[in-house]
Amino acid sequence: MLDMHCHIIPETDDGAKDMNITLKMGKKASQLGYDCILATSHYIIPNNQLENKEYLERIRKVNKEFEKNDINVTVYPGNEIFFTNDILGLITSKKVCTLANSRYVLIELPLYTRVVPFNVFEEFNKLQDAGYVPVLAHPERYDFVTESISNIYQLIESGVLMQVNIASITGKYGSNAKRNVIRMLKYNMVHFLGTDAHSVSVYSDYKRAMKKIKANIKSEEIYNNIMYGNPSMLLKDLPIPIIYPDM
Fold first, then answer.
1. Residue 163 forms beta bridges with which residues?
2. What whole-number distance in Å separates Cα of residue 212 and Cα of residue 67?
3. pTM summary value
4. Which of 20, 30, 58, 65 places its Cα 20 to 30 Å from the Cα of 85?
5. Residues of 173-185 as b/e, b for ≥16 C-beta within 10 angstroms?
6. pLDDT score at 245
7. Which CATH number is 2-235's, of 3.20.20.140, 2.60.120.280, 3.40.1160.10, 3.40.50.300?
């Protein structure tokens, strides 16, 4: 099982503060059934950014420590890229990592805008023309989704995939995010799940959250696609067929 969104690399962003916390996160993730984690440390311009070579070395060290401590989880490279006008340039210059070195790219938009930023479709089209697939991080948290769920429909229709945070359904990110994720699940607007873990505490209510998520998905087939099928395709860098929302 794959965690699509996790801030597990120590001393890199606002996630794990040190290797001890990273080990606790890895152990708990393993106990919950995860054997693969995408490291999605923030990449935000103009903040000082970690050089890609050093970032990959930190991921290598985490995998080495997991092996040493009998934690059966493999960590793959990735970034949560805050939206900018030249995401493609960041990829081609190897300043950021795609998800597990695949065609899939995790992108975060501003949380508090009531409309989809005007240049999002243009930038996403540039990525797609170059062979990449945008994956939108935690769309349920964006004000423009609260304003109108049809904004998600338009993004999916344009080829963007959606990753929601598991804890959103329990209210961790507020009532709007909770309501949005339930609607997205019911309308078949979710392609991936992620913990968005920054520490071990996010796992405390995991089982209850997953039970609520499954209850709001229309069929076992869709559930299996979200949990296993789509993540497997990502790791193999294969195209994921988009099933359009059922609204």
1. 137, 192
2. 33
3. 0.96
4. 58
5. beebbbbbbbbbb
6. 86
7. 3.20.20.140
